[in-house]
Design a protein that fits this description.
Blueprint: H1 2-31, H2 37-41, H3 47-54, H4 59-91, H5 96-99, H6 101-104, H7 107-122, H8 132-186
Helix pairs in contact: 3-4, 4-8, 7-8
């Protein structure tokens, strides 16, 4: 019986120590400030500003969405265009990518941006405001599409102008050739065609 009493005493002592430790941990946890996600990221975003940014009706929210979406769109556009230019240099001016690099810096952006934008709009819940990240994605897709459309129209406009210059050059060279043939004919030299 003495042995059982000793085991019981030890168990009770251990339980008492555990309760003391738990009380100490609870007290320490209560005295600690609440953890903030911004602290983990190393960002010092004031809570009031963060609250305004998450409020869908505030100007801060609108500016945050527009700036983040626009920045994402511009950076991704420039990265894709840099990759296309590198591929064009690698394939050379006679390669398909090299000869179509101007159009490739616009057309895929329009298609990808439009697909993402429409997918985001069509999958939104009814009578429910979208989350901050969805709004940023929508804005980024919208700006991405517009940047691609701008690049595509510019490429087509330059190609059209180059085509007009080529046609004018061809007309001038043809007129020069006809004048030279006429001069040769007036001198009595028969030209071979």
């Amino acid at each position: 019986m003495a042995k059982k009493k000793t085991e019981t005493d030890r168990t009770e002592t251990t339980l008492a120590q555990l309760k003391e430790n738990q009380a100490a941990l609870d007290a320490a946890a209560a005295s600690m400030p609440t953890s903030k996600k911004s602290k983990k990221l190393g960002l010092a975003i004031p809570p009031k500003l963060m609250e305004r940014a998450m409020d869908h009706t505030s100007k801060t929210h609108r500016v945050s969405v527009d700036l983040l979406g626009g920045s994402v769109a511009h950076v991704s556009t420039e990265l894709i265009n840099a990759a296309i230019r590198a591929l064009a240099r690698w394939s050379g001016p006679k390669g398909w990518v090299g000869s179509n690099a101007d159009v490739l810096q616009g057309a895929p952006h329009v298609l990808i941006g439009l697909a993402i934008y429409l997918t985001e709009i069509l999958t939104r819940g009814k009578n429910k405001l979208p989350s901050f990240s969805r709004e940023v994605a929508s804005e980024a897709a919208n700006v991405f599409t517009h940047l691609g459309l701008h690049n595509l129209v510019r490429a087509l406009r330059i190609r059209w102008q180059d085509g007009k210059v080529d046609a004018q050059t061809l007309a001038a060279v043809s007129a020069e050739r006809d004048a030279a043939l006429a001069k040769l004919a007036s001198l009595g030299v028969q030209a071979k065609k």
